Amino acid sequence: MAVTTPEALRTQTAAVLDKVGFLRRFLRARIWHGAEWYITVLGGAILVTVAGVTVLAPVLAPHDPNEFIGAQFTVPGGGRQALLARNGEVPIAGDADLAGVVIGVQRNRNGANLAKRLGAEGVRFEDQQALVGGLKAGEVDLILIDESVGQELAAADSQLELVATGLGLRFVLGTDNLGRDITSRLIWGARTVLGVALSSALLASSFGIPLGLLSGFVAGRLDKVLSLTMDSIYSFPGFLLAIAMATMLGPGVINVAIAISVIYIPTFFRVVRGQVLSIKEQLYVEAARSLGARATDILIRYIFPNVIPSVVVVFSLNIADAILTEAGLSFIGLGLPPDVPDWGYDLSKGHQFLIAGYWWMITFPGVLISLVAAGFSLLGEGLSEMLNPRLSET
Amino acid sequence: MSSRLWRYILLRFILTIPMLLILVSLVFFVLRVLPGDPALAILREGASEEQLASFRAAVGLDRPLPVQYVDLVTSLMRFDFGTSMTRRIPVVDEIKTFFPATVELTLFSMLVTGSVGVLGGAFAAQHRKSPADYGIRVASIILYSLPIFWLGLMFQMVFGAQLGWLPVSGRLSPGMTPTETITGLYTLDAILRKDWALLGDALRHLVLPSLTLGLVLAGIFTRLTRANMLDVLEQDFITAGRARGLRERVLVYRHGLRNAFIPIATLLGLQFALLLAGAILTETTFSWSGMGRLIVDRIYDRDFTTIQGSILFFALLVASASLVVDVVYGFLDPRIRY
Lengths: 394, 338
What we know:
The structure holds two protein chains of two kinds.
Chain A: H1 6-19, H2 22-33, H3 35-55, H4 57-60, E1 81-86, E2 103-106, H5 110-118, E3 122-125, H6 128-136, E4 142-146, H7 147-156, E5 160-167, H8 182-218, H9 220-235, H10 238-249, H11 253-279, H12 283-290, H13 295-331, H14 343-352, H15 359-387, H16 389-393
Helix pairs in contact in A: 2-3, 3-8, 3-15, 8-9, 8-11, 8-13, 9-11, 10-11, 11-13, 12-13, 13-14, 13-15, 14-15
Chain B: H1 3-33, H2 38-43, H3 49-59, H4 65-77, H5 91-126, H6 131-145, H7 148-162, H8 186-193, H9 196-233, H10 236-243, H11 248-270, H12 272-286, H13 291-301, H14 304-332
Helix pairs in contact in B: 1-4, 1-14, 5-6, 5-9, 5-11, 5-12, 5-13, 5-14, 6-9, 7-9, 7-12, 8-9, 9-11, 9-12, 11-14, 12-13, 13-14
């Protein structure tokens, strides 16, 4: 590499690029950009996956995110039931009809839900000991019990016999305090989170970019006033501003998006204005002006296209931040209406039950928020280094 | 002490005034002009028209908006942040009760942010483009992508609920609450009173919240330090030092870091706004009775004046912090003048 002149390298590469398709060209770019390429691709891959999940939510989600479908606090992977009987006294054959058979279930557990769904009238017992005791004493013919517990019991106790396993629903990531399926809530929640973050970034950019263009291009008094205003808002803790907005506007997807977008208008404004200030001094702009181009043409056709790369970077970084802000608002109870599945809201619920040890309620939503926010950050960082290598070094 | 320095300080001070006015107007606009009726929010649906009217008259919401605005600005000049709508006590008293806890939390968090950020950033800059550099950079991106409250929840779960090493909520254990406070910072109070049991308890309660807040901000701070260190390390005096055979570690950590320190300290000052925003969520997570708790609790009560007062107090705080940082910077670096 060291002896190859840049010219030779460029001709070689151009020749190679002509032969290969888009995908190969894309993969080849990693040689040019090094680590930044990997960072960008990693971020992009995370986002494409999440976007896919968002689009396919109705197909992917096993259950309705708002339905109280299981028992409260089912552990991840739990929910499946085993049917136990007294040894040698199995009242049914295989998966025969359960009608007319007296089934014992444990109160507030998945077995109780399942019995209800099967239409069998279950006899409720307070705890596991009472349930097994009830079976042995002949109060009931069969009991429904968590699969793993049932298998252990059958293996350890010769009085009990395993009739069937794998009954009922399985909750991969467990259920929450109301028995809702966490997997489904997370999948549908992706829609909410991405929707709010994207629309707030779009809103912020649709105010910030035009104002920044105008302020940088027109200069003078307008620029001074706008800059001071934007700098003031920028210096203020944005989360507090979002709190104030969200308090006033009340819960709602649109309202939260508006509340969040206010924070990011100054970010777009500052970046665009700074870029315009340096671009408008460039020779080609001067050339256009001397050829008699109109001011609006110069702004829109000569300056704006050169601002786009920075805007893309800011956009990506802002979405990352907006996701965290949205989650924060939900966490303190200012987010969306309760019937909209949302990761931040699920975390605030998990917070209430943290000491009880239901780790799955707080772990999974948090991992997803971090993952998606990191995805947008990585994409933004990588793009920023690839598009303006000099900007990111300082 | 040159007259140019004083001119700079004066100008910087004067510039703070329109900035504060803009923020006050913004907060006023959001809380008073935007749709949403505080009276209805507090008295709930079903309140009669007379009840609403008398409530509005009692808290001054029935006056024309310009009058309310002028009143707000003039009372702020007297450091009057209004009267709580629900508790009927001055918001200033509320702030006095809750603010010391936030100060204590933010100070200890800054300690975490500063040490982790400076060391991480300097190390990454020293080993630029090495796997360690990329590792630190990716780690810092991940750190600031963590929802601050979630990191807190994870700490609570692991070190509190599972291992039982550290307390997960509050500022002191039950029964330890001091009868009177001197500064309101429990650690400082304990030292002043030589109450070592109290100091230990306060510190144990501080560990998880300040780690939570400090680590998330350390992600941003590492990046800033790295960028600044890279600037410094490219300068001639570093090359000169290297030519004279100074060891790399001495170059980076003694000569380099010392010269990067002024911009880094300034950046730490500018992180103040982020620190306060993060404190709100950290306090909610750890039931830490500071300003964040105050604001969040009053949101549930729909106590608009307390929310407004607290937010304006933060605005004042941020504006003063950036003023102080700029003035100190002006003293330290003679090149900075208007």
